[in-house]
Amino acid sequence: MEAACRAGHHLEVARYTVQRGGCVYSKEDGTTCLHQAAKVGNLEMVSLLLSTGQVDVRAQDSGGWTPIIWATEHQHNEVIRMLLTRDADVTLTDNEENISLARGGQLRHPHGDHLPGCGSRLR
């Protein structure tokens, strides 16, 4: 499942696995498939995983990174928007006390309002 979450062309494999009860948590370090999909910007996979109700949009990996921190780090704006609509918490800090707002300064609420401390809008 982990490989399917990272690669865009394995969406059907992931869908089949999820439908058969496959686990969406992938590693002992707390990384989830949602972390992986957000990191690589796989919007379809993020959508699929969120639709299962099995993922925690606020889950932190062993470094304290959440899916939205990964998406922000790699500037995957559509993924960021989707995670925000699912109540991703942009104020959670990683193990080094960084927050996703500090990564790129580009987050805003999906309805167009800037989030506190954010400089520019998503494109």
TrEMBL record:
ANK repeat boundaries on the chain: 29-53, 63-95
Organism: Oryctolagus cuniculus (Rabbit)
Name of the protein this chain belongs to: Uncharacterized protein
One Pfam family from the record: Ank_2
A Gene Ontology biological process term: negative regulation of transcription by RNA polymerase II
Gene Ontology cellular-component annotations: chromatin; nucleus
InterPro entries: Ankyrin_rpt, Ankyrin_rpt-contain_sf, EHMT1/EHMT2
Region (Disordered) residue spans: 103-123
Keywords associated with the record: ANK repeat
GO molecular function annotation: histone H3K9 methyltransferase activity; p53 binding
Coiled coil: none
